[in-house]
Structures are given as C-alpha cells and as structure tokens.
Design a protein that fits this description.
- GO terms for molecular function: DNA binding.
- InterPro entries: Sig_transdc_resp-reg_C-effctor, Tscrpt_reg_LuxR_C, WH-like_DNA-bd_sf.
- This is DNA-binding CsgD family transcriptional regulator.
- By secondary structure, this protein is of the alpha+beta class.
- The chain has three domains: 162 residues, Transcription factor LuxR-like, autoinducer-binding domain (Beta-Lactamase); 102 residues, Beta-Lactamase (2-Layer Sandwich); 73 residues, Winged helix-like DNA-binding domain superfamily/Winged helix DNA-binding domain (Arc Repressor Mutant, subunit A, Orthogonal Bundle).
- Helices cover 45% and strands 19% of the residues.
- It has 14 helices and twelve strands.
- Helix 3 packs antiparallel against helix 5, helix 11 crosses helix 12 and helix 12 packs across helix 13.
Length: 363
C-alpha cells in the first residue's frame, strides 16, 4: 500500500460526504492491505456510550453478532488504553491470562475471520476518538503496519472536518427551525436584482405569496411596480458602493409581509454572480382574519379588540390603526385599554412583544 498512488487519500477526504460514510475509503484500504475487513469505529463527542461502526468486507454472521451482544456486551479489548496514533497487533491487546479476552478471541474473532488484526486509535482535537482497523485470517507484514501509521494524521484531519461539518449541520438545523417558526427568510441579489442564493423559507414565501416572485432570468419581481423600482434603486446604490443604510419596506398587509434590504459584504467563489444586497423577508402564513380568531381564542379579546391588537402588533400607532379600521381615535384608545388588561401588556411595545413571542409565532 502506498499513499501516493492515486485515490486512497482522496477517498478518505471525500468519505465524509458519502452514505454510508467513508465506504469507498474502507473498501480501498481493505483491497490495498489484503485484509478481509477494514473498519472505522468512532464514539461521538456528545455520547460516549454509543459508537458508529463503519466497515468494508463480509459482514460477520448474525449469530456471531448476537453472541457479541449477549455474552460480551461490549468489546473487551483495552482500546481506550491504546496510545494515540500507534499501530497495534492483536497480540498486544490480548492478555493470555484474561479468560474473557481469550473467549472473545476464540468464539468471536477467529470464526469471523479476524485471527490477525492491525488497529490504531486516532483522537481529533475536539475529543472524538476513532479506531481504524484491518483484520484477516493471514498476518500482515511490518510494511503494511508501518504504512497504516502514515494514515493517522490524515484520518485525524478527515475526522476533524467531519465533526466540524456535523456541528455546523446541527447549528444550521436549530437556526433553521427558529427562522421557520418566525416566518423569516433571506435571499441575495446581484446588481440586476437577480436572485443569487436563498434559503428554503424565502423560497416558500415566494411560492405562496404572489407578492414577490422569480421573474425572467431569475430576477426578483415584486407584484407592485413601485416596490420593484424602490428595491432596484436600493440594489443599484449598494452596487455603486454608496454606503446606503438598510431599508425596511412593508409590501403587503394581508397577509403581512415585510422586507429589509441591506448591503451584502460577504464574498463567495461558489456562485456565478456577485451578490451586492441581501433581502430579509418576514411573511405571515396566516391571513388577518385567522390572526383575529387566534387572538380571540388566546387572550379572550372581542373581535373588534383583536383587529386593533393585530394592527398595533404590526407597528401602527393607535391613530393609524383607528384610521385603517374605521374607528374614532377615542374608541381605539378605549379598546387599547381593554387589550392591555386582557394581555397583561403595559403599553404598545410590550403588547407587540407579547403577541409576537406567543404561540402565534408558531402557528
């Protein structure tokens, strides 16, 4: 086995994107070493009582696997005492005076075709520990064991990259759930208002609203020409580097949709177009009528109070909300006092916070 003869290292680094993980690498390693089996086992950093087992080669018979769980419960070999990065032979791990280890060897390893073994322990900087092993009915040469050791730093790097990817996937999933619950999305635009990239929430908002859509040549196209011109001018000013500040625009009131258009300063080589602006969208998935009914159910508001409460939650002043709903300002003020009493809010700012952080945000 040589590390410079083509695709072994390539398969190691690409293996974190495969399913099952590292399958090509283990198959190549098994073939290059003449092993019957090649395995990579690691214990996740957040669960030291479980392990992920990846292997290439003939799967041990089911009765032997059942024997492992019934009689031995866990591998009795002292894997955790292995020195990191050193290749061990099976004889170095077996204690001839330990009856459990000898039974494990004779009843499980030998019938599985694992009479001889070379294994090493690798620990990446975040604390995830892995064991890379090859096994066969025939012994391995010293050259194969030495060359296996050369793989240690490469496996460590691959494992570290995998752990980093998994953590980012987890963080992304948590963030995505939070954004989805708040009905937020984002998309980036180039200087011609073409959509460069977007998240799934923005895509759903575009699909269901009709207020914003993908037009010809992937251009973001608002339904209202005035909004289209306003966004286009903002994007052009960002492209010219004029240092404009982010601008919030309400583009629909029922269902509610707001956008914030801001300069985009990050750069990426992964797209054909250069984004110059990022557009954040918040769109309600419910109509105003749905929201009124939910406020009635949640806080015991009267329908007229619910309509005013929802208008105020969208940032309208009492006077503005009264005008929109066809109420006098005095009537709206009387309603607002009842709304504050029923919701426990001590003013409009607290009312907005109460409504938008209630279970309405999850509806």
């Amino acid at each position: 086995m040589r590390l410079d003869d083509g695709d072994l290292l390539t398969s190691l680094y690409e293996g974190m994107f495969e399913q099952p993980l590292w399958q090509s690498f283990l198959e190549k390693l098994r073939a290059r070493t003449g092993a019957s089996y090649a395995t990579l086992i690691f214990r996740p950093i957040d669960d030291q009582n479980s392990f992920v087992e990846l292997y290439a080669g003939k799967r041990p018979p089911e009765h032997l696997r059942q024997l492992f769980f019934e009689k031995f419960e866990r591998d009795p070999l002292p894997h955790r005492q292995m020195r990191e990065g050193r290749v061990y032979a099976l004889t170095e791990l077996l204690d001839p005076d330990n009856a459990t280890q000898q039974a494990f060897y004779e009843e499980l390893l030998v019938p599985s075709g694992m009479r001889y073994l070379r294994t090493m322990r690798i620990t990446e900087p975040n604390g995830v520990t892995a064991w890379l092993s090859i096994a066969s009915d025939r012994d391995f040469s010293a050259a194969i064991a030495a060359r296996l050791a050369v793989l240690a730093p490469h496996v460590r790097i691959a494992l570290r990259s995998f752990v980093a990817l998994e953590r980012e996937r987890f963080r992304s999933a948590v963030t995505s759930r939070a954004i989805r619950n708040l009905n937020f999305g984002w998309l980036t635009l180039d200087a011609q208002c073409r959509i460069v990239d977007s998240d799934e929430h923005a895509e759903r908002l575009l699909e269901r609203s009709g207020i914003l859509k993908r037009g010809r040549y992937n251009r973001l196209t608002p339904a209202l020409p005035a909004i289209d011109r306003e966004i286009a001018e903002l994007v052009r000013s960002f492209a010219r580097g004029e240092g404009g500040r982010p601008k919030a625009i309400n583009i629909n009131r029922d269902p509610w949709m707001d956008i914030l258009v801001a300069p985009f300063s990050e750069r990426s080589v992964s797209t054909n177009y250069t984004p110059v602006a990022i557009l954040y969208l918040r769109g309600d998935s419910q109509s105003n009528v749905d929201r009124y009914e939910q406020l009635v159910d949640l806080f015991g508001l009267l329908p007229s109070e619910a309509r005013l409460a929802w208008a105020m939650a969208q940032g309208l002043s009492i006077a503005e909300a009264a005008k929109e709903l066809g109420l006098s300002v005095e009537t709206a003020r009387n309603y607002s006092k009842k709304i504050y009493a029923k919701t426990g809010a001590r003013g409009q700012a607290e009312l907005v916070r109460t409504l938008l952080t209630s279970v309405l945000a999850l509806a």
